[in-house]
What does this fold into?
Amino acid sequence: MRLTELTQGAREDLAAAEGPAQAAARVRAAAELDPRLLVLAERLEGAGEELREVTEELRRYGETVDADPGRLEQVESRLASLEEVKKRFGGSLEAAIDERDRLRLEVGAGEDLEGALADAAREVAARRATLEAVAGELTRLRRQGAERMSREVSAELAGLRLAGAVFEVGLEDRAELGANGAELAVMRFSANPGEPLGLLARVASGGELARLMLAIKTVGAEADSLPTLVFDEVDAGIGGEAALQVGVRLAALGAGKQVLVVTHLAQIAAYGDHHLLVEKAAGPQGRNLVAVREIGDSAGRAAELARMMSGGVTEKALARAHELLEAARG
It folds into this structure.
């Protein structure tokens, strides 16, 4: 070790040098001849005593260092390690200590991993039980609603010239219980007696779908939050009393919502609060133009209803148109 080497060398140098005590004796002898040298002799004697003390201190220090020659290397190695830690964790010992404390907490939490897993499993089981209980109540309410909707919509269809048609809402189990419950609602339909029920979207025609929608909206009017309803082809394949029944139901829906209906039947048009006439005519450069205008007065509406019924405005058709308007207002 460098420190040991240096202190040992210094001791050897002092031991090898001609001692100050011998020089002091020579000067004291000379002082007998010249008293002025007495002061120098005393100074040399004092220096000799000081050198002896320094030599003794070096000896004791050397013994201390020699007792643990690897201590300095250990200290230097430790300091180097601390510098590396400081660089990795924030640049200061304080930041490194904070990181150590955080890691200790994580390690402590990991040591009780089995306990944490057991707690988590109990929490999952409790929440699952709650979910199943709530889903069970939702299933019960859905069954009641599906039975009522199936019964009431099927009854409405009879008045819309779909006598014998059957509408059914079925509940099918989901693959996994979740936020939407344990089942999925599926609508099925049969247009004629004896025909098997099929998925509504696959077996119903456009006209049947329009009347089914009208029946569903009529049954669920109070619960439906849609502000606007649009019906097209709702008059397909019907006329007479069935058309009047469709008009009555559309007017009832219109009392609480905005209802737009595209129709060619006077029996339905008579129930509208506003009658919009769509006309197509030849325009410039041979292109057809479509215009929409509202028929606001009673006479104009009666004339248009008459034209819809007979293709022309005759006295008989006008009389029937006025009857339809009176019935709709009444």
DSSP finds twelve helices and seven strands in the chain. Residues 113-158 form the longest helix (46 residues).
